[in-house]
Design a protein that fits this description.
The protein has two domains: 191 residues, Quinone Oxidoreductase, Chain A, domain 1 (Alpha-Beta Complex); 134 residues, NAD(P)-binding Rossmann-like Domain (Rossmann fold), CATH 3.40.50. It is built from twelve helices and 17 strands. It binds zinc ion (2 copies). The site of one zinc ion has 7 residues, from helix 2. Pfam families: ADH_N, ADH_zinc_N.
Length: 360
């Protein structure tokens, strides 16, 4: 028989969890494993709120078991390390992103692409190697194998840096992989939310010329003045879309609401790539000719592996890249979820876990 969250492990933990598809989060006492030989235990200081958290707590992808404690943009301070841990010591600043385990024997794992391992273990709502469930960062502390723990660069802020662990790497990785990381390349970013604003910052730091596509004309000022995008196009405006025809080497599409990709493919130069990182529920309508006539490509990309995530954090620290955030206490989390659903946040909520989560 499955053990209760409180009694699976010896170490008491405290956090916020959803207990049913209403997705309402409330305090939960659960447990975490004792620090194993290769484990790093840390006190959680900050945790970003990702749109995936909302999908999971409402079981919108049909894979959720309750109770679920979300959060995969987690930063904190190491409090204990196992006897065989090599990379970390007590007091170090660390982060954990979307993954806490993988098979370590497949082709993807061998290539440092744990995010494409078929047996990857996600940071929350998954079954760990020992058969118990994983709990995310809306909680007082965290324990993970050191391989899945990131070293936090000294000059990278902990609170506004937290969202880099999902939103950051999800946009950095495709920019790198698809060659959109060079001075002068022309990159489009569709959607200006948590992912989109990170994509603009990384693309600009790589030296790319960036065009933001948004359905909201009011976002022009934020895009051009705030984020230093070079161009802004209202994607509903056919005339503006036509003016962008055949101008871009690649596009990072972050939108998770249903939308048409034909106008975006039209904005690509020959050999251009449209990379999907948002995940609309409805399938896209794709005409073969829209690809054939310019040898264009539609691709997808998930988060990056651990090696690349560390590289991304170091790059962000070097170039002063953080997320624009609104820092909230944990008892505001349900309100924050509602606001996120209405895109009423610039651009990421981050929970001030250590200062607002008090165990009873
Ligand atoms: Zn995420
Ligand atoms: Zn693997």
């Amino acid at each position: 028989m499955a053990k209760s969250p409180e009694s699976e492990h010896p170490i008491k933990a405290y956090g916020y969890a959803a207990r049913d598809t209403s997705g309402v989060l409330s305090p939960l006492t659960f447990s975490r494993r004792a620090t194993g030989d290769k484990d790093v235990r840390f006190k959680v200081l900050y945790c970003g709120i990702c749109h995936s958290d909302l999908h999971f707590i409402k079981n919108e992808w049909g894979v959720t078991t309750y109770p679920i404690t979300p959060g995969h943009e987690i930063v904190g301070i190491v409090t204990e390390v196992g006897s065989k841990v090599e990379k970390f010591k007590v007091g170090d600043k660390v982060g954990v992103g979307c993954i806490v385990g993988s098979c370590n024997s497949c082709e993807s794992c061998a290539k440092d692409l744990e995010s494409y391992c078929p047996k990857q273990i996600l940071t929350y709502g998954y079954i760990d190697h020992d058969g118990t469930r994983t709990y995310g960062g809306y909680s007082d502390h965290m324990v993970a194998d050191e391989h899945f723990v990131l070293r936090w660069p000294e000059n990278l802020p902990l609170d506004s840096g937290a969202p880099l662990l999902c939103a950051g790497i999800t946009t950095y990785s495709p920019l790198r992989h698809f060659g959109l990381d060079k001075p002068g390349v022309k990159v489009g970013v569709v959607g200006l939310g948590g992912l989109g604003h990170a994509a603009v910052k990384f693309a600009k730091a790589f030296g790319a010329e960036v065009t933001v596509f948004s359905t909201t004309p009011a976002k022009k000022q934020e895009a051009v003045e705030g984020l230093k995008a070079d161009h802004f196009i209202v994607s509903k405006d056919q005339k503006q879309m036509q003016s962008a025809a055949s101008t871009l080497d690649g596009i990072i599409d972050t939108v998770s609401a249903s939308h048409s990709i034909a106008p975006l493919l039209n904005a690509l130069k020959p050999d251009g790539k449209l990379v999907l990182v948002g995940a609309p529920e409805k399938s896209f309508d794709l005409a073969a000719f829209s690809l054939i006539t310019g040898r264009k490509m539609v691709a997808g990309s998930a988060t990056g592996g651990l090696k690349e995530t560390q590289e991304m954090l170091d790059f962000a620290a070097k170039h002063g890249i953080t997320a624009d955030i609104e820092l909230i206490p944990i008892d505001y989390v349900n309100t924050a979820m509602g606001r996120m659903l209405k895109s009423d946040v610039k651009y990421r909520f981050v929970i001030d876990v250590a200062n607002s989560l008090k165990a009873p």
